[in-house]
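Minutes, project check-in
Item: structure for the 801-residue chain
Input as provided by the requester:
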Amino acid sequence: MSNVQFRISSALKTIIGKELITDDFIAMFELVKNAFDAHAKQVHITFTSPKTKDARIVIQDNGDGMDKEDIQGKWLFVAYSAKKRQRDYRDKIGGGRIFAGAKGIGRFSCDRLGDSLTIYTKKKGQTGAWHVLKVDWSMFEVDDEKEFQRIPAQYSTVDVVPYDSRHGTILEIGGLRSDDWDRQKLLRLRRSLERLVNPNQENDSQNFEIRLHCPDEEAEDNRIVALAKERQEEPQGWQLVNGPVKNFVFESLEFKTAQILVEVVSGGAEIRTCLTDRGRRVYDLLEKSPYSSELDGVRTILFALNQSAKNAFTRRMGMRVYDYGSVFLYKNGFRIHPFGDPGDDHLGIDHRHQQGYMRTLGTRDLTGRIEISGPNPAFQETSSRDGGLIDNKAFADLKSLIVDLALKRLETFVIDLARFGTERGELPNAETMSKSEVKQAIFGIIARLTRSKDVLNVEYDADFLNILENRSAESVSALLGNLRRIAAVQNSPALAKEVSKAEKQLYRLSKAKEQAEEGEAHERERAKNAETAARESQARAQEAEEAARHAAHIAEEARHREAQLDTQNVFLKSVLSKDFEHVLSLHHSIGQDALTIEQYVHNLLELLRNADAAPTAQMKVYLERISYRAKRISAITRFATQANHRAAQEELPGDLVEFIREYLLNIYRGLVLGPQNRPIPIHFHQPPKAAFSTTFAPISITIVLDNLISNARKAPHKVTQIDVSVVECTDDRLVISFCDNGVGIPRRHVPHLFEVGFSTTDGSGLGLHHVREVMTEMGGTVEATANHKEGAEFILAFSKR
């Protein structure tokens, strides 16, 4: 028997290079992590002439560097990693760091970015020449039958390097494989790098800085800085390409939201859960861990986001929370991809949200992070750098910890709050809740939590038990029994004292309740006697009432016609609660679309009856417009059939001027019919470069425009033209004029135009009322011009949101 050996094809380079590392940003992250593992304090990423054929990426760090032996014995040794030799959490690299990588393939990220690589490197503390290594990756792609190890790399030394550095490693990547490194991609890279390092995690990450440079973008950066200075503002970091990358932690925004912290402590034997709301502790729970010790050091923090927090985030960060990401995962301070990316569901959060939409939170309602500290060999990244963690028992336990102990408990709190009047489908804004309401929600939560025999200790808001008068004696006694048991197990005199105080309060309340019940019995007896006397008086008064009723009937007939209108308006106003008002608005929009469909069906039938061969193009136009209106009705009914139709009207950032122009000129082109069923042209006028960037719900804008157009179409004197004009557009304010060429609005009607039920046509009297309500909800205004020279004019004013 003889021995045989494996041979390695040169194609291995492509497999573990640009095919394994499939994203430019992931490749950049791997090289930054290598700089961190080399104990660098700074890493500079420079893009030189990125839009030309001479484009280069230079990644320069001031870390430990390498000598010739390191290059040959480590860097050129494929899949070898000296980092794997670190076995214990205490065995850190210099400066208190734990290695961020240990696969030995991150160096092939250079192949993903470009087809050539030059390395300049010098060890820290050494004098003399720099070591230079040149690799032409394209040489590995010429012949797959050529063996990997037989393709040479060029080694040399130089006394001076073309960069300002005394030691460390400089990677110069040429022949860039991507030619789209424009400003937008560089800004996306900056945002991604902001999420790469978690400065809140213990791994010396606060002593590590990333700087991004692109000389071609300095002029635009300077323009943005100067513009911000004119406005007496600070330019936001996400607007600039050049400069240090600020590591972002969500807590720094100080949003007033509910948040939960869950961490595995005591060598993995115990779990601590801390829930806070508006910066105030709700409860702090310590319990036995049901998981293996492999989860020791795992820490997760989740934030529940209501619409107010989402809007504030967008204003601060220049992007929506969903586009920024949801729940990120960090190991030893560095992010593991793709956890947290929009659309990623490795943790199964959105999957369970689909099963119980109104009872759970999805990734659109959450942000936060998971932190894994120490080597933790059970949590290993897949070789594909965007594949997350290897799916094993430790990862299954991690998902259980996040969902069962963090997410479900956060859901219990925020959804319990929602029962106190917050609309379903939208997370409650805690600022609108009274202390009493929040305390009652806390009562129920702690009562459930303390039933478990695994609870070791619980702490809570100091005045929490003052809500006892609002609860039944049975539920209070059960909770106090649970708390007394925990106090005995933990030998906690402080908790036992609080329980005794609460029991005394409960006794006093019970006595007061008994006395009140006795007083109520006496009152009921007196009321019974008074009722008998009142019944006798009522019989005598009944005869007088009959005579008065006859006279009242005659007077009522005289006022009947006037009372009809008054009664209608009073009824509408009395029933128009906030939710019912939205249902009427959606119903009105459906009615308008249905009338439009009916009109086009009539036109289509006329076309078919009056022509031997109906024009195909004209039929197609009618059918497309009917289809569009039917889709609108379908979308609106989906809103109306949800428990919270407002939640479906998500606000989006965009140019409001462009949206209105596109909607009127494209969607409504030829759709509004006037006399003899002829289309009423809609003209849109705007100053050059007029733009108004803000956040808005498209359905709200379309409801306003639809109702104004419908109002013009139903005017007593037929309208033959509609003009929509931008009359004012600044950074903070947009004013739109909506004008038709009818006979205008009588001055006496102007004060009543937006009242419920008021109409000068055969309409419902809801359209203009809805316009005002929707504009008010958006923070804007609508006014009717009383003395407009020609036709009716409405002025819409929008403010920056």
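Outcome recorded: The radius of gyration is 35 Å.
No further action items on this chain.
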